[in-house]
Amino acid sequence: MSSRGVLVGAASLAAVLLGLMVVYALVSGDEAAARNGQSGRSDEAGGDPATADRPAGPQRPAPATQPTSAPARRAPRPVTPRHVRLPYLRHPRILIEKADHRLTVFDGNRPVKTYRCAVGAGRGDKTREGDRCTPEGQFRVCVKNPASNYTRALGLDYPNAEDARRGLRDGLITRARHDAIVEAVSQGRRPPWNTPLGGEIMIHGAGQGRDWTRGCIALDDADILELYPAIGLHTPVTILP
User: Fold this and answer.
1) Other beta carbons less than 10 A from residue 116's beta carbon
2) The 202-204 sheet, strands edge to edge
3) Domain count, the chain
């Protein structure tokens, strides 16, 4: 074969190969376009190229919500050691915290000693005779009994004027009894204790280990013996839930 024939043959083979490459490129492009159309995703749409065509697997259940921890129960605050004596009080007042079973003695605004105490076996604020609840609110010492069956006793002016208004509103007492309670409290005397609202709420002795009283506040005998002489008539007493 002449040199010219060899050149013509090589050119023809090159043309055939080029045509085959063009056809292969067109076919490959169509297949890729078809795959993209089936998946419905594209890199521009934010799909992950590594997972865009991967069939969706079973959905994993959402993690269960972890239960929130219950609030830690508040430990009772410590009371004053018994060997620490109650000082002389110029301006005594008493704070009773029922939930904490604490009776705190103040001299003015300064707390000077705390005692552990028991309260009524009922729950909540006192509303009537026999509910065994310790009343809540602002009171004053109106009676001192050195010969109490419970060692010593400081009587409180429950029911007070607020209790009388509530009792009248709820139909528990008459207008006459309401007026008698309000007048006694305003004059610093013992209010009537024989009404449906109840009465004879005392700070007394006989023990503080459990809530056992019918509404009174109970201390250990040694504590009421210390507290009793330091608290005079008309001393303010606040009782909190």
Assistant:
1) 18
2) 110-116, 102-107, 92-97, 236-240, 137-145, 153-156, 202-204, 217-218
3) 1
Question: Predicted confidence band at 209 (pLDDT cuts at 50, 70, 90)?
Answer: confident
Amino acid at 223: D
Asked if residue 62 is part of any domain, the answer here is: no
Residue 167: domain span: 92-240
Assessment of whether the complete model's pTM goes beyond 0.85: no
Exposure b/e, 10-40, CB count within 10 A at least 16 = b = eeeeeeeeeeeeeeeeeeeeeeeeeeeeeee
CATH number reported for the structural domain that contains residue 188 in this entry? 2.40.440.10
User: What's the pLDDT tens digit per position in 48-61?
Assistant: 333 333 334 444 44
pLDDT over 90 (residue 235): yes
Percent of the chain residues past pLDDT 90, beyond the cut: 65
